[in-house]
Amino acid sequence: MSEPNFTDIYDRVCKRCISFSRKGTILLINGLFGRDYPLDSTVDYNWTEHEDDDLKKTLADSIITINHRDSYHIEVQMYPDSRIVMRVFEYGFRHALTSQSDMEVLNFPDPLILYLYEDGNGAETQRLLVNFGTQGSFEYCVPTYRYLRMGREELERRKLIVLIPFQLLRLRKAIERERTEENLKALKRLVQDDIIRVINDNVAAGNISPMEGQTLKQMTLWLYRHVYSGYAELEREGVNTMVEEGLILDMDIIVMQERKKAREWAQKEAREWARREVQKEAQEWAREQVKEQTAAIKGMLAKLRSLGFSDEEILKCSGLTPEQLQKLETDAG
To answer: For helices 311-318 and 280-306, what crossing angle results, to 10°?
Structure first.
């Protein structure tokens, strides 16, 4: 398989995962580089496209600056590349030039290579000898992390939340070789336990917001369709349907919870404005907001019911009380 171009799905998903959540990005830097930045630190993303000798776009590198001061270069690898350490050095040098504030100092970002494929090379560091002639030589060392070799405990300890969609790649080679019943069951468990459950746990813990959890599930769905949906066995055995419904339905539940919060906020605002006897137009706007959010929630409820969800299951996943559910069934808001 040839190396992908700039528009490759892995590159797009990786950029989205790394940059969609400031808090998630800080946790990623802390987990990979052993730092301890507060979660309210500032984050600047330095996306830079480069061109190779054939004038084709290459994968854009990810250089992240924390608190406008400390820069980190994460080079994500999906395929073997014998020149990877050279490219990391080149990108780091270009960043040092563009961000230079002292004409006598070049500040390189701290580099790291993150492998997202099954790599047989176990080296913990990639090295490049930079020879300055009579001034001597310098060994440029880049640490490496192999995501697919990290166990669940290590991943949870490092809080690499934004990389959760790439759990899908753990079974890519096994499914590619053969689609046995055991492999198909393993894929189902992977999606349910190591992706959906872990994302939900991090939402519950406050590490990411519900909408950020929704984004991670959307990225997971994109990756799944790219990696697995072409196999006839997965379609025939209902694996694709299970994954699609599990991720999409879970995203709908998150949206419904957000709608519920928006509805409650609108109701509170309506009561507050009424108490203060504000203008009639403002009160009407708030009531319209309540109606809009109520209609959206009722639409979600209808979808859940069409999929066979019981009242008990709907109450559990939506956060509604029995009284609220009954009122929604009989009242438009």
So the answer is: 130
